[in-house]
Amino acid sequence: MKHPDDDLPAFVNGTLPASDREAIQAHLAGCEQCREEVHWLATLREQMQNDPLPAVNEMGMARLMKAVRDEEKQTATSAPGWWRGALAAAVLVVVAQFGVITSQWQQETVYRPLGETVEDARIQVRFVETASEAQIRELLDRVEGQIVAGPSALGLYLIAVPEGASVEQAATTLRSAEGIVEQAMVESAE
Amino acid sequence: MTDSVAEEQALLQAVADGDQRALQTLYRRWQPRLQYYVQSRLGGDAAAAQDVVHEVMLDVWRQAGRFEGRSKPLTWAMSMAHNKLVDYLRKWSREDSHDNVPEPEDHEEGDTAAAIQGSQEAAYLHHCIRQLPDGQRDAIQLAFFDDMAYPDIAEVIDCPLGTVKTRIFHARAQLKRCLSALMKGLCSLDEPDGCSPRPS
Ligand SMILES: [Zn+2]
What we know:
The complex is a heterodimer. Chain A is α+β, with helices and mostly antiparallel strands. Chain A is built from 7 helices and 4 strands. In chain A, a hairpin with a 6-residue loop joins β2 (146-149) and β3. The A-B interface holds A 5-6, 9-10, 12-15, 36, 39-41, 43-45, 47-51, 53-57, 60-61, 63-65, 67-68, 71, 134, 138 and B 20-21, 23-24, 27-28, 31-33, 35-36, 39, 50, 53-54, 57-58, 61-62, 112-113, 116-117, 121-122, 125-126, 129, 141, 143-145, 147-150, 152, 165, 168-169, 172, 175-176. The complex binds zinc ion. Zinc ion binds next to α3 of chain A. Zinc ion (ZN) is lined by residues 3, 27, 31, 33-34 of chain A.
């Protein structure tokens, strides 16, 4: 058998069909030159894969979803801000669960619904007018956040993130959701 | 068929039916890989690469219904990325060195496997990969970074299977030559064109 040089990269990256693999393995057993080449290719592959993939571009995703929504709007008319009603209803349920009714939480330094631990951190968020409910839900899922109050007269929502989570990091994630979040501010704890 | 291929086919089907959440899932899976490929091809220009990837994913949304399952979903998306990249480069009339692939010379290679194992050596390898002609770099990157099969690479870069093999063959030889020259101090990382293929 002549040296199966062309097949060695596919042998190394695991994409060679099983039947060809066996033939290569048989050849390698008796060919020092090809064994060395396989070693070099494997090292090359390993080294190339040491280069990390970039993190998911959250802003890019927000931009994409906005473009998708804009295209949808051209085909179907939808009332802007339709989600606000749905969200407000959801908030009422949450607030009722905690047995707290508030209209002025944004003026208070600390707002804590009953039954919540003091370690819970809060973020004040204003969403972009055109953000969809699905987008907001997806975003909140990502930071494991929950709307605990809002919207205030200023259109602010209060988001709670779980105990132990980095509130700063959550705020950064929220803030960077281009097309969904207009502003996000960490509530000072004490 | 691997699980991830079947999953992505199902996601693509959902996208074709208008499921935006499925599109988000595909974005999470594909965007880093698409970004890496496009960005390395654009000389590290992250913002331009983001624009290209945005266009690709928008086309995934628009054209999911036309995906026929003849290729793997990711291969399909990567090939759209490659096409957009070519358009982008043409638009900005940047140099494309595809067609002047230099013939590798016979060369004393030394222990090039050992040469790319340390961190200094990783810098050497990056340097040498950057020096490759675009077509060779695409092929070797898709083969070893993305672990793609030759037929998939051929589809992504839109060329015959034989061309993929030739490009990978030349890329291997060129990388060995470049690494070995760096190791012997024949050229250095500081030279802008250090260890690039010499025109014959
Ligand atoms: Zn051999």
